[in-house]
Amino acid sequence: MNQFPRGFVHFAATVALAASALLPTALQAQNSSKSDQWIHVRVENKDEGGETVRVNVPIEMAVKVLPAIKKDNFQGGKVHLDCGHMNDVDFRALLDAVRTAKDGEYVTVQSNENDVRVAKNAGYLYIHVTDKKHKNAAEAKETKNAHESRVEVKVPMKVVDALFSSGKDELDIVAALRALSSNGDTELVSVKDSENTVRVWIDSKNIAD
Quick check: 158 and 177 in contact, CB under 8 A? Predict the structure, then answer.
């Protein structure tokens, strides 16, 4: 369990940074209509003189561009999952269990190293992870949680359904974006640590906050 939150923090930050690297080249073809939903990614580096990267992409354009990207496990708008690194977890079965279950808190973990919360409420799946860098409670008190990494994910369940709609070993990113575009304004991912802050959200604005 202790390895999961740290890996999740890294994964969320990597996804946001990958978006900032891959999608700006397509912005020249963007549609300026404000009625369309846009996906926004903002990455801020906290170092002195650090950069702030903002990416604003119409979801309709992303749906057309992503299938053209072919890199490693990302092919045709889908991510192939390496089952050898998934510890034999059947994510489709887990998804079905969450989808059909009543609203509530499914996982709550509090320890000296990690805090984890997984819950479902009003059609949304919530995943909150705090990865504590402290070696002990005294250090935590002294640093006032300065070295914590926090990940907050809020995903509509219909987007989760679409994400897993392809195959057992694939995530359908394009299908998830289509489902996302019909959901309205939503804060999706927030990552905060001592080095960077990452925010991913959707709305109808063609500029970021």
Answer: no
Confidence of residue 143 (pLDDT cuts 50, 70, 90): low
Distance CA 4, CA 85 (A): 12
Tokens of 109: 């973990």
Could you tell me if residue 208 is inside a domain? no
Domain count across the chain = 1
Against a cut of 0.85, is the pTM above it? Answer: no
Contact criterion met (CB below 8 Å) for 23 and 164: no
- Decide: 12 and 189 in contact? Cβ < 8 Å: yes
- Between CA 199 and CA 72 the distance in angstroms is 25
Question: Which amino acid is located at 23 in the chain?
Answer: L
Token pair of 67 as six digits: 């299938």
DSSP 195: S
